[in-house]
Design brief:
Hypothetical protein af1432, six-stranded mixed beta sheet, globular, alpha+beta, Beta Polymerase, domain 2, single chain, four-stranded mixed beta sheet
């Protein structure tokens, strides 16, 4: 067996020698035979030695012209996950760089998951986190997945479908996002082969039936174009092929048409030396063949976000059949096929802005999602972020901005500059003032109206579509919330200290840090503001002597409330107090808590105990009256409905209010009150409902959100 792998090693070295001279050959040899020894007793389901998979992954990386370090990591990518080798051993033998690459593609092994879906999502999250640190991680994963897809036939049918669907959902759009067309189309063709084998085999048969006839048409077309290009002294290379099976399959599915009605089954590619020659070639093609209206796209002047550049046109070719023509330079063609791999090769010697931009996209997504604890939601969001088409819009100065479909002026503002997004107060599209949630279209000219200071609204995150916009909005909200927590926490402690005749300014902050139990003061202020600890508890920790002589505590005052209440005043206890006395607690009217909300109680001698939502903006007022915070919870069983207010914003139209009321009434939910205000073309509706809990509120807001023209539904 070793002799066979010696030949495979030599073949891998020959492949690398085509583009790397005097590389780290000793490192490659060491990694190859280390991997061979680690896997030598393992066999894949196909019956071949397991290490053959690692070698094939390395060959794919070499075809993508990756550096020797990445290829070595590719040879080792399964040793930690599938053998007894520890990551520390890889680190010791090969260094930190390779250890991090191997760790990046290694599944999480030291945690137990209740569901397979959660395990897959957590492993995917780990991959994306590693990818954000080093793009070579995803290149190794790309190679690993491609070889697994090539050998998928040996797995059970159920597993084939799961892996093929995941490849279609994640790896195809990820490869396209990184501009690696050579991987993208292979993933897609292989995935469809296993997902819909019957249709795949039908397409294979149909394409093969008239392949010679199609190639004749391509040759005729190539000869005509070459003759004309030669006369114009424009050097070029022309290739032709049938469309990829996945492209034909997608067209059949999306347009619901049979194979015979897929007219543009052929594609011709013209490769020129210079950019200006690409436009001359378009003129030649359109002179020789009739162009199809609205089928010309200039991705040279307006490149895709993954760096793809090319001219696309569709013409009526020989025999009256439609045919797609792509025209680009050799450099553009290489980038189109190799994508981020091409940029990585350049990065080794220079600074590559495009590669950096690609990593920024990944990092911005992670920054936006870092507060999301649900791994399944992470995976769903990442897939959604990948699977978007693009539009091109312009600034008033003519600068081109590339955005995903359904982007808004607010997404545009953040794409131009973070400060413009943060200070945005309005927008003009094609010289007309529009709401910030307006959907932009190709060719729109967008002007952003700004204020002198940031004016962020929390609901903005409900309609922006780019990770950049979401990230910056959430970051500003977090930082602003932190400042508010610091201010509120200081006030809360100050009020408590004032009861004992101590002024906040007289407190030694070092003493406060030492005895409060918190690592720094900012953490302490946030804990106070979010009611994770009370100001009284902090005061007790720092000044324990203040409480030794106290004859009564807050809890001894509780019976006074009970004595004032007759039996007729005590209603069904849907809120419980964590203390020595059972209480019926009044719900605050300002924030309208409902079951499922996190709540906190405040005791005031003049009003008793009032329960607020923990994020209620009126809590500082309670504290200004020296109200004492206390822990309260919802009872386990509650058979009651509670009033709650929501705000609905949408485009004003006939029957909008009727549609909302119908959607609410279908859920058997009572509407207590409605107030509607029209501002230009925008309708703002404040609706008070009676619901049983947070889940029912979520369901009704989701139903309202689905109504035509509704832009935002938010709880007040």
């Amino acid at each position: 067996m070793k002799k066979a792998f010696e030949k495979k090693y030599d073949a891998l070295v020959r492949q690398i020698n085509k583009y790397v001279q005097n590389g780290k050959k000793e490192l490659l040899r060491k990694a190859f035979w280390f991997g061979f020894e680690a896997h030598k007793n393992q066999v894949r389901l196909s019956g071949v030695p397991y290490f053959e998979h690692c070698v094939e992954a390395a060959n794919i990386l070499a075809e993508l012209k990756m550096d020797v370090t990445t290829i070595a990591a590719g040879l080792l990518h399964d040793v930690v996950e599938d053998t007894g080798v520890k990551l520390s051993e890889v680190r010791s033998e090969f260094g930190e760089d390779i250890a991090q690459l191997v760790d990046g593609v290694t599944k999480i092994a030291d945690l137990k998951f209740k569901k397979l879906e959660i395990e897959k999502a957590e492993n995917f999250r780990k991959l994306v986190l590693s990818m954000a640190k080093d793009i070579r991680v995803v290149m190794i994963k790309f190679a690993d997945r491609l070889h697994n897809m090539r050998t998928l036939e040996y797995l059970p049918k159920k597993k084939q479908l799961l892996i093929a669907q995941e490849t279609l959902d994640v790896y195809v759009p990820l490869a396209i996002r990184f501009g690696i067309a050579s991987l993208g189309w292979q993933y897609e063709d292989l995935a469809i082969k296993f997902i819909d084998r019957k249709v795949y085999n039908f397409i294979d048969k149909k394409v093969a039936e008239k392949s010679s006839e199609r190639m004749k048409r391509i040759e005729m077309m190539k000869e005509s174009i070459l003759e004309k290009m030669n006369k114009l002294n424009i050097p070029c290379k022309i290739t032709g092929r049938a469309k990829r099976y996945s492209s034909i399959y997608r067209k059949m599915q999306e347009q619901n048409i049979p194979f015979e009605e897929v007219y543009d089954l052929l594609a011709v590619r013209i490769i020129t030396e210079k950019k200006e020659d690409c436009y001359a070639a378009v003129g030649v093609v359109h002179t020789l063949f009739t162009p199809v209206a609205d089928r010309f796209k200039d991705y040279i002047a307006t490149p895709k976000s993954n760096g793809y550049q090319s001219l696309h046109t569709t013409v009526i070719g020989p025999n009256g059949r439609m045919l797609e023509v792509q025209i680009r330079t050799e450099a553009m063609d290489y980038t189109a096929e190799m994508g981020i791999a091409a940029h990585w090769q350049y990065k080794a010697k220079n600074t590559d802005k495009h590669l950096d931009d690609q990593l920024v996209w990944v990092r911005e997504f992670l920054d936006w999602d870092k507060d999301n604890s649900d791994p399944s939601e992470f995976m769903k969001s990442f897939k959604f972020d990948l699977a978007r088409d693009e539009i091109f819009v312009f600034t008033p100065q003519g600068r081109l901005i590339n955005l995903p479909v359904n982007a808004t002026p607010l997404d545009f503002a953040f794409a131009v500059h973070t400060e413009i997004g943060l200070k945005c107060i309005g927008a003009k599209v094609n010289s007309e003032v529009v709401p910030l949630y307006t959907t932009l279209h190709n060719g729109d000219e967008v002007e952003i109206l700004t204020s002198s200071k940031p004016s962020i609204e929390e609901y903005w995150t409900s309609f922006v579509v780019t990770s950049r916009a979401r990230t910056q909005i959430n970051r500003w909200l977090r930082e602003n919330r932190k400042l508010q927590y610091i201010k509120l926490g200081k006030e809360m402690l100050g009020n408590e200290l004032a009861k004992h005749g101590i002024e906040s300014k007289d407190i030694d902050t070092t003493l406060l840090e030492q005895h409060s139990g918190f690592t720094n003061l900012d953490t302490l202020w946030e804990a106070l503001a979010t009611h994770r600890i009370s100001a009284e508890e902090i005061t007790r920790r720092v000044f324990p002597k203040l409480y030794k002589s106290a004859k009564t505590t807050f809890f001894t005052k509780i019976p006074r409330i009970l004595k004032k209440s007759s039996k007729n005043d005590i209603h069904e206890p849907y809120i419980v107090f964590h203390g020595d006395y059972p209480l019926v607690i009044v719900l605050s009217k300002c924030c309208m808590p409902i079951p499922g909300d996190k709540i906190v109680g405040f005791y005031r001698e003049d009003k008793g105990v009032i329960a607020h939502r923990v994020k209620c903006k009126e809590i500082p007022k309670e504290l200004s009256h020296n109200a004492q915070g206390m822990k309260v919870d919802w009872a386990e069983k509650i058979d009651k409905v509670f009033p709650v207010s929501i705000q609905v914003v949408g485009a004003d139209r006939k029957h909008l209010l009727r549609d909302m009321v119908v959607a609410i009434s279908k859920m058997d939910i009572n509407v207590v009150g409605i107030h509607v205000e029209i501002q230009g073309i925008v309708a703002m509706c404040d609706i008070t409902l009676e619901v049983g809990d947070v889940q029912q509120l979520k369901e009704v807001t989701q139903n309202i959100s689905k109504i035509k023209g509704i832009q935002r539904v938010k709880r007040k």
